[in-house]
From TrEMBL:
The lineage of its organism: Bacteria, Bacillati, Actinomycetota, Actinomycetes, Kitasatosporales. One of its GO terms (molecular function) is ATP binding. It comes from Streptomyces lutosisoli. InterPro entries: AAA+_ATPase (IPR003593), ABC_transporter-like_ATP-bd (IPR003439), ABC_Transporter_VariousFunc (IPR051782), P-loop_NTPase (IPR027417). Residues 6-231 form the ABC transporter domain. CDD domains: ABC_DR_subfamily_A. Keywords: ATP-binding, Nucleotide-binding, Transport. This is ABC transporter ATP-binding protein. It holds the Pfam family ABC_tran.
Amino acid sequence: MTTTILKAQGLGKRYGRRWALTDCTLDIPAGHVVGLVGPNGAGKTTLLKLACGQLAPTAGSIEVLGGTPGSSTAQLARVGFVAQNTPTYAGLTIADHLKLGAKLNPGWDDTLARERIARLRLDPTQRAGKLSGGQRAQLALTLGVAKRPELLILDEPVAALDPLARREFLQGLMEAAVEQELSVVLSSHLVSDLERACDYLIVLVDSRVRVAGEVDELLATHHRLTGPRRDPARLPADQHVITASHTDRQTTLLVRTDAPIHDPSWTVSQISLEDLVLAYMHEPADTGHRPVLEVQR
């Protein structure tokens, strides 16, 4: 059984003179719903297109499920992809889409596809162009899961949906991941979606992995410290400062550590996933304590 679903080493992609992705190194373990988050221009979409074989690397290497993305029909069949605009064919009916999926995918599960369409109360005779945004997204997800992939990649699939449609889509995604034992990589700007659906987090900034690991572990090892103003460089060596802010009398730090914090001058509080994501999306504080950004397994 594959234990690593995606492995990149020094991965880069250039369009003309512009690098959309540079020096990206990543190792994603199997069996997770992975949230990929980062600012615009961080390289998320480029990375996902490289992973599903739509693009070829300019530099470095990438392996998906132990093989080269897009290298064969068998490799393509192992990976499902739902693009940002959840593409469907406006002139085709839902039933037409399922027939097309059956023709294009050797492992197509027609029973799963039809049962899912029925459960969503979608009319198979309705044309995709007449569906709501949420319904089109659900159709795209159905096409992705019915090919029975080992890895499902989704690039901002709910960005344009209203809150109810987003919730329904993510619920369907989580059900499919459990029922089919899928590994999932989901990119999103919406941290609330990541909190709801993902158990593994990757923050990508300027093509580099700032932090990666299981969400529960990341939240358990990051803390907000508030206390009298002091120089963060004087903290113990095992307390890695991610961000620091100061007033005349007070210092507030976000630190990463596996050890208990015993200093009584600090007030220690838990952080949210949004706090963690925003901290790593900013430049690291110039404190002398740089964060350790090893991929957690």
